[in-house]
C-alpha cells in the first residue's frame, strides 16, 4: 500500500518590482490549501499571483496572471442645486471603476473646455480640479443642465445635474448691449440695451459720465423703456439729427433693489466737433 505524500501550498502576490509577498487570509481573500478565493475582485487585484507547492522532495511554482475588467461609472453631486442670483454653486463629478483617461464638462450640451484645458472662457466658471466645477456669481445664463463625460480605454459614461435659480429677487443681467459704432452725421442713431432681473430693472443713460438729460441739446435725445413678453426690460436711446458733438462714450445702467449692471461703448461721429474739453 502506497503512503500518501502530503504537501504544503502557499500563495504569493508579485509586486511591480517582482518581489514576492505572502498572501494573508482575510474576509475578502480566502485561502484553502490550493484554492485562492477573491471576493468582489477589482482592479487592485489585477497582476501576477504565484502558487507554491512543496514537500520533502522539493517545491514547484505556478504563476497566474489575473486580468480584471472594470467598467467606469459616474455621477454628479449634487444632482440638483437651487442657488439664488449672485450665489455660488459647485458640481463634483465622482467616478468608480477603471482609471479615467479624460473628463469633459458640458453646459446645456455645449463644451465648457477647449482642448481639455482647465479653463472655460467664462469669467465666473472655474475648475477646482478636472472633476470639480465652481460657478460664481450665478446668473440667468448659468441655469440648465451640466454634464460630466468620462472615458478610458475600455468604456465611457456620463452623468447629468441641474442648476436652478432660486429666490424671488435677482440681480439685473444684461441680455443685449449696443456696440461701438463709427458713423457720419445723419438723421438718427438708436442705441439699445436689454436686461433681466426681479424686480424689473430701471435703465439710465450717460454720455461721457454725465446723465443724458444734463447734456446740452438734450431735446434731440429720447429715452424709451418697456417690458417684453418674456419679462425682460428693453431700453432705447434715440439721437435725432446726429452731429459730431454727439460722439463720445455712452453707457447704459440697469439697476433694481438687488444691484446693478452697466455697459459702455463709444459712438464715433466723423466731422468737426464743437465740444469743449476741460
TrEMBL record:
Keywords noted in UniProt: Cell adhesion, Disulfide bond, Immunoglobulin domain, Membrane, Repeat, Signal, Transmembrane, Transmembrane helix
Under CDD domains, the record lists: IgI_4_Dscam (cd20956)
Q: Which GO terms describe its biological process?
A: axon guidance; dendrite self-avoidance; homophilic cell adhesion via plasma membrane adhesion molecules
Residues making up the signal peptide according to the UniProt record: none
GO CC terms in record:
axon; plasma membrane
Q: Which domain of life is it from?
A: Eukaryota
Q: Where is the Ig-like domain?
A: 72-164, 172-268
Q: Where in the cell is it found?
A: Membrane
| KW Repeat (keyword) present | yes
Q: Cite the SUPFAM superfamilies for this sequence.
A: Immunoglobulin
Membrane-protein topology: Single-pass membrane protein
Q: Which molecular function terms from Gene Ontology are attached? A: cell-cell adhesion mediator activity
- Is Lyase included in the keywords of this UniProt record? no
Name-wise, this protein is Ig-like domain-containing protein
From which lineage does this chain's organism come? Eukaryota, Metazoa, Ecdysozoa, Arthropoda, Hexapoda
Amino acid at each position: 500500500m502506497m503512503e500518501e505524500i502530503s504537501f504544503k501550498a502557499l500563495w504569493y502576490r508579485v509586486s511591480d518590482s517582482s518581489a514576492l509577498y505572502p498572501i494573508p487570509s482575510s474576509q475578502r481573500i480566502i485561502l484553502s490549501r490550493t484554492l485562492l478565493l477573491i471576493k468582489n475582485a477589482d482592479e487592485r487585484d489585477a497582476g501576477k499571483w504565484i502558487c507554491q507547492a512543496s514537500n520533502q522532495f522539493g517545491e514547484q511554482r505556478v504563476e497566474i496572471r489575473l486580468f480584471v475588467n472594470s467598467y467606469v461609472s459616474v455621477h454628479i453631486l449634487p444632482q440638483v442645486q437651487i442657488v439664488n442670483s449672485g450665489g455660488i454653486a459647485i458640481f463634483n463629478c465622482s467616478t468608480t471603476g477603471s482609471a479615467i483617461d479624460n473628463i469633459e464638462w458640458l453646459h446645456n450640451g455645449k463644451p465648457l473646455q477647449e482642448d481639455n484645458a482647465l479653463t472655460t472662457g467664462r469669467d465666473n466658471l472655474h475648475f477646482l480640479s478636472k472633476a470639480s466645477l465652481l460657478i460664481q456669481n450665478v446668473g440667468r445664463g448659468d441655469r440648465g443642465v451640466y454634464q460630466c463625460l468620462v472615458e478610458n480605454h475600455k468604456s465611457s459614461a456620463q452623468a447629468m445635474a441641474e442648476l436652478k435659480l432660486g429666490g424671488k429677487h435677482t440681480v439685473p443681467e444684461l441680455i443685449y448691449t449696443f456696440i461701438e459704432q463709427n458713423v457720419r452725421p445723419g438723421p438718427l442713431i438708436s442705441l439699445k440695451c436689454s436686461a433681466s432681473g426681479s424686480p424689473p430693472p430701471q435703465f439710465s443713460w450717460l454720455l461721457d459720465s454725465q446723465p443724458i438729460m444734463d447734456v446740452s441739446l438734450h431735446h434731440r435725445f429720447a429715452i424709451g423703456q418697456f417690458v417684453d413678453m418674456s419679462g425682460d426690460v428693453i431700453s432705447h436711446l434715440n439721437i435725432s439729427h446726429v452731429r459730431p458733438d454727439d460722439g463720445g462714450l455712452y453707457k447704459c445702467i440697469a439697476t433694481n433693489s438687488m444691484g446693478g449692471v452697466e455697459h459702455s461703448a463709444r459712438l464715433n461721429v466723423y466731422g468737426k466737433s464743437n465740444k469743449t474739453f476741460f
